[in-house]
């Protein structure tokens, strides 16, 4: 059962990384892949901390940081849509 859970975590982890690396057309897709990535790491922490009978206070800190990352990403997305009209990276000039 533990091996099955670890394989499930690894699959989610690599799918999140794959989407983050290869789907860089829209900012929203990148933000969703980052959230999927953090969610898979969170489930891995839950699994490992329950396995060693450790308290789960550190998970709350991890969730706070991942929520703050999501809020910052959404604020960047909103400011980009308001200034450029869409979330394509091709229309966003870095200079």
From TrEMBL:
InterPro entries: NUOK/Mnh_C1-like. One of its GO terms (molecular function) is NADH dehydrogenase (ubiquinone) activity. Keywords: Membrane, Mitochondrion, NAD, Translocase, Transmembrane, Transmembrane helix. Belongs to the complex I subunit 4L family. It is a multi-pass membrane protein. It catalyses: a ubiquinone + NADH + 5 H(+)(in) = a ubiquinol + NAD(+) + 4 H(+)(out). Its main location: membrane. It comes from the Eukaryota. Signal peptide: none annotated. The keyword Cytoplasm does not apply. It comes from Euproctis similis. This is NADH-ubiquinone oxidoreductase chain 4L. The keyword Transferase does not apply. It is found in: Membrane. The gene is ND4L. The chain crosses the membrane at residues 29-52, 58-81. GO terms for cellular component: membrane.
């Amino acid at each position: 059962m533990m091996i099955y859970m670890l394989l499930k975590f690894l699959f989610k982890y690599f799918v999140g990384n794959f989407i983050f690396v290869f789907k860089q057309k829209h900012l929203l897709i990148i933000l969703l892949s980052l959230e999927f990535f953090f969610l898979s790491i969170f489930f891995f922490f839950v699994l490992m901390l329950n396995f060693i009978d450790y308290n789960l206070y550190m998970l709350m800190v991890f969730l706070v940081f991942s929520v703050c990352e999501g809020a910052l990403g959404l604020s960047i997305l909103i400011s980009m849509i308001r200034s450029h009209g869409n979330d394509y990276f091709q229309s966003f000039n870095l200079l």
